[in-house]
Amino acid sequence: MLHQLLFMLSSMLTRRIAQSISHYSVNNLFAKSLLSPREHYTTTNVPISNFQKSLLAVSSAFTAFFDPSRGDMIATLAETTSSIFLNKLRDEMLRDSKGRQILRERPIINSKTIDIPNLRTLPEGTFGKEYANFLDGEMVTPDTREKVKYIEDEELAYVMQRYRECHDFFHTLTKLPVSVEGELALKWFEFAQTKLPMTLISSVVGPLRLSSKERTRLFEKYVPWAIQCGSQSKLLMNVYFEECWNKDIAEMRKELGIYLVE
Amino acid sequence: MIDKNLYDIAIIGGGITGSALACALVNSQKTKSRRIALIEFNNMSNIREWKPPHLQFSNRVSSLTPRSIQFFKDIGVWENINHERIRPYKDIQVWDGISNARIRFNSDDSISINKNIEAIAWIIENNNIQHAILTKLAQYKDSNIDFLENTTVKRIMFDDVNYENEQFDLSDWPSLELSNGKVLKTRLLIGADGINSVVRSFASIESLGWDYNARAVVATLQVEPQVENATAWQRFLPTGPIAMLPLNNRFSSMVWSTTPTLASKICTLPSNNFIHLVNAAFRLRIADLEYLYSQLENCDIEFVKEFEWRQSIEKKAGIGNEIFPPLVLDVQEKSRAEFPLKMRNAESYVKERIALIGDAAHTIHPLAGQGLNQGLADVQSLVKVIEHGVVTGQDLGNIQLLKNYSSDRYLSNLMMLGAVDKLHKLFGNDFAPIVFMRSLGLQVINHLEPVKSEIIKYAMGIE
Question: Which key words are in the record (chain B) (predicted)?
Fold first, then answer.
């Protein structure tokens, strides 16, 4: 009874919010599926405000909780929470002059923009060489990153792309291996850097896949390191890695406040 | 025989509220026979001969509510106003700098507002008001009023000196020792002498309240020409609100309350960077602003480039489609100034033979443009009380009479002070749940016409 009532309330709320913002934000799946077709939509790609997004996040979470078959609600939840995450990350970049330079120039990392064979020729100990070593050692290329879809805002889509593209640089700097354990440690590190809980979602679910020995090691060794190191180091999204190939990596770690896990 | 140094009413402070009170008293049929002294420390001749410079505006402006305007009409001041230099506005847009949640007040939309009301309020230079009052006062030269300019009150005291031929005991009348050597005695002493009122300290009335850790920066801005520049804009930033008020189609006035450190830097910023900082403060993200704050002393950064880049990104993302105040093109030279922000309310407005009005009684944060309107409401109330005293033959200094003024104004001022103070505190917070709740509140109220009407009527002084 109470569930039904709450469900009705939350879907009504979602609907009302969607209606109230429909005149300037319609180009999204969920609004189309909810609103009556009689209403006139502008088709320009206009995002809703952060505040409206958080309202949507809350109400869609409610609806999805009481009726998991509402796939549209789950999509809305994912879309709105990730946009809150990206907005926060972008704000951190906007506060920093390097971050602003990156947003202005929008550099892209792939095998076409980065001369990897040339990086291999750099002296040992430089950031460029270490990065090339990492790629060769893990047998990956910068092109294996998933393309960003479903984010309409150009700049936020870029922030997401940059976030993914920088992932291998994070590995290079922290020397964390590409294993479930290493990835989870890196997630904790990112959480400590950004203070954004969204980065933690996989860190909560992920450990289920570890053996109990690995799990102990994760929580006793990696997580304390990640929290300590991540919260005192400079936000890595504000590092223009492409300018650092020739830098001594130990020097670079020092400048950024990163130390290695023992 | 009447001693020429005896007055019924002495008003200390010839600012807008003090001189408006004098004007209202000599204008009233009931009180015009009383002897009144208006004592002002400054020389007012500059304002008396005020010749407004073409295409320049003073940075000290006020927002006058319909109620205040009606009062000025009633006492014959309004006809002396330079009407080319006032700007009515019918529209107010207020929004949250973090969430962008907005509320819009429009006097045309409001169902329960009398359609005869031309505007929500009028933006007017303080000099324009003061000039109009002085012009009116000049017509009463031969009346019972003495306007003592350039005169400081050196001391206020009670004395036992008996005047010649004195038939009455006047020892409980306050004596004013003036800088010109004269000593006045008055039946009723009115403090219109601002936040550091000497009358209030003489009466040992405590002033309660606090200083905000904030200063207001004012400036006269030249803006992108508007067909009709008739909206008051206010964006609440985490450091305090920034407001833009229309002066005419090409000029607006700015009040920006912010931290003391930022205020002094903003005041001395090169003007090309300043105008784009103001544009950014109305249009860009808080993160952009925080970056610009960190670069205020960096002469190499061109704020215009930062502003235009971010503006183009926001336009693409569609945020630029919201309605914003006109772009600032220039700032009038030497129009930037800053002052501290305070909240004060005297513990009492009256004592035996003493009354306080305007800033001497209360000081408010300027975010709702209510300070002067409250002062003028004090004046109206006190005039009524004095008229009543005259008609019923009471001693004008009698505390029982003056208490009517206090009980009429105290609670009402306190409520306005409290409401504005709470608003300031609510919006000065960037804690996410509070931002969320206040934004929800703004959006809900924005859709509730009756509530909006009540708020706007309260702000307009319509009871």
Answer: FAD, Flavoprotein, Membrane, Mitochondrion, Mitochondrion inner membrane, Monooxygenase, Oxidoreductase, Ubiquinone biosynthesis
Locate all alpha helices (DSSP H) within chain A, ordered by sequence.
2-21, 29-34, 50-66, 71-94, 97-105, 116-120, 127-138, 154-165, 167-174, 180-194, 201-205, 212-217, 223-232, 249-256
Q: Is the dihedral of CA B169, B171, B172, B176 positive or negative?
A: positive
Question: Which sign does the torsion angle of CA A187, A189, A194, A196 carry?
Answer: positive
Partner-chain contact B290 A153, CB within 8 Å: no
Residues of A in contact with B100 (CB under 8 A): 49-51
DSSP string for A13-26 = HHHHHHHHHGGG--
Q: Where are the domains of chain B?
A: 6-72+126-206+347-429, 212-339
Would you list which residues of chain A are within 8 Å, Cβ to Cβ, of chain B?
20, 24, 44-47, 49-51, 54-55, 90-92, 94-97, 100, 104, 153-155
B287 touches chain A (CB under 8 A): yes
User: What is the pLDDT at residue B307?
Assistant: 96
The pLDDT-based confidence of A25 (bands split at 50, 70, 90) is very low
CA-closest candidate to residue A116, choices A103, A100, A129? A129
Contact partners, residue B344, CB within 8 Å, separation at least 6: B195, B207, B208, B209, B362, B363
**Nearest-CA neighbor of B255 among B401, B371, B91, B143?**
B371
Which superfamily does CATH assign the domain made up of B212-339 to?
Answer: D-Amino Acid Oxidase, subunit A, domain 2 (3.30.9.10)
pLDDT digits (tens, 9 = 90+) for A157-214: 899 889 888 889 999 999 988 888 888 888 889 888 877 666 666 556 566 667 788 8
Q: Does B286 touch chain A (CB under 8 A)?
A: yes
pLDDT per residue as tens digits for the range B317-351: 876 567 899 999 999 999 999 999 999 999 999 99
Predicted confidence at residue A76, as pLDDT, reads 64
Nearest CA in chain B to A93: B287
Distance CA B194, CA A36 (A): 60
What pLDDT does residue A43 have? 34
Superfamily of domain B6-72+126-206+347-429: FAD/NAD(P)-binding domain (3.50.50.60)
Would you call B171 helix, strand, or coil by DSSP?
A: coil
B286: chain A residues, CB-CB within 8 Å: 91
Residue with tokens 């009005």: B357
C-beta atoms of B285 and A91 within 8 A = yes
Interface test with B, best of A16, A21, A26, A50 (most B CBs within 10 A): A50
CA distance A211 to B204: 77
Domain boundaries, chain A: 44-256
Measured CA to CA, the distance from residue A243 to residue A127 in angstroms comes to 10
Cβ of B101 and A100 within 8 Å? Answer: no
What confidence category does residue B77 fall into, taking pLDDT thresholds of 50, 70 and 90?
very high
* Prediction ipTM score: 0.84
**Domains B6-72+126-206+347-429 and B212-339 are alike in CATH topology:** no
pTM of the model: 0.85
Indicate yes or no: CB of A24 within 8 angstroms of CB of B319. no
pLDDT above 60 (res B165): no
DSSP characters for B232-301?
EEEEEETTEEEEEEESSSSEEEEEEEE-HHHHHHHHHS-HHHHHHHHHHHHHS-HHHHHHHHHTTT-TT-
Annotated binding site of A for Zn(2+): 167-168, 171, 183
Task: Report which of B221, B188, B232, B412 is spatially closest to residue B323, judged by C-alpha positions.
Answer: B232
Residue located via tokens 């600032």: B328
